[in-house]
Design a protein that fits this description.
It is a single chain. This protein is mostly beta strands. The chain has no helices and 34 strands. It starts with a strand and ends with a strand.
Length: 398
Amino acid sequence: MKRLGLLILLLATACGGPVTSPAAATAHSVAWITGAGYREDFIAEVEAASGRELAEMPLGAVASDLRREYVVSTPAQQMQTIDLNTGRVVRSLPLGGEYRLPIDATGMPAGLSANGRWLVLTGPDFRVVDTTGATPPRRLAFEGQMDFDAISDDGSLLYAIQRLGQQYAVRVYNVPAGMLDPNVVVGKGEPPVMAGVRGQSVFSPDHAWQFTIYRGGPTGAFIHALYLRQPIAWCVFLPQSPSTAAYGWSLAAAADRLYAANTMLRLAVAIDWHGAASPWEEPEIVKTGHLPATIPAANAFLINAEAKEIGGSLAVSPDGATLYAADAAVIQAIDTSSMAVRARWGAGVFSRIALGPRGDTLYWVNPEGQLVGIDTQTGAVRTHPRLYFGARAVLGVR
């Protein structure tokens, strides 16, 4: 039987107090996603100290605040809103058709706006759902081959990728009017179509922008910067690289900067997107850091065979002062003011990394399926003894 991936989600417990070091990791409850052929992927919250399961839920689109998820049952033609703290269904919505959640480049269910208010489903058309239940769902007809890209926080603009053979264009729907804008969303002076393989996406903290990596096209790796509040987009071209190394880029966003790093190329860059007030200014690379060699390029990226995800992993501290770049050999702490490496820890990471809310502990899952935490001040490592067979990544920490 095919064994599906497993995803760990960390949630700070009310009784555990603040987490100050990996030794305090038992003050967290842990949730994971798993599957083994005879059962669907699920999320389960457990106590890290005892391993006692607190709640179990089917896998859905998880809100960025880690409080709700949205699950679609195609046979039942309904959507359920599930409280991640309790595992209880708090709302059900009949869909009246066979709809499903979009899947992102990492293999995870997607479709949510950055604030979690709106969810886009795909099926015979796009279905835009208000997750609060305050307004009825809306249907938007496809035009050609359309894939979901993003939706604005107010639910008024839905961005879609229109496939045009080996190329594609970004289109935008006016959701209240139910109309597709005839114009392509493109930056000034840029071609109306793009080419390449879509990768990781991140939102800016103010939810005004979505940044997406594309690689494998004739122009090399680039970041598609999509302004969500108006149909404006830019392409930020990354340093050129061999075709394999181009897949090593990963992203992380801070309050006023977007960071991209590629340990295969030994590069990290800081990108100024000029904030939400200046979407007409082209985002630009403002700093470049050169990283020490870690391991040969052929082994320097992470591969998730289930999700077909290739690339390193990045996280940025809550104060924006430190960027953490992880690959299969080391974790590097980069000072964002100078883009210089200030610390290196010999801890190979084969999954996505996630910071605790105070930025003092970095978590990941090791190849053996154990949860690992590292103190970002001392470098002390704590490995949780329990095995989570098939573990894929830490989703987040709250």
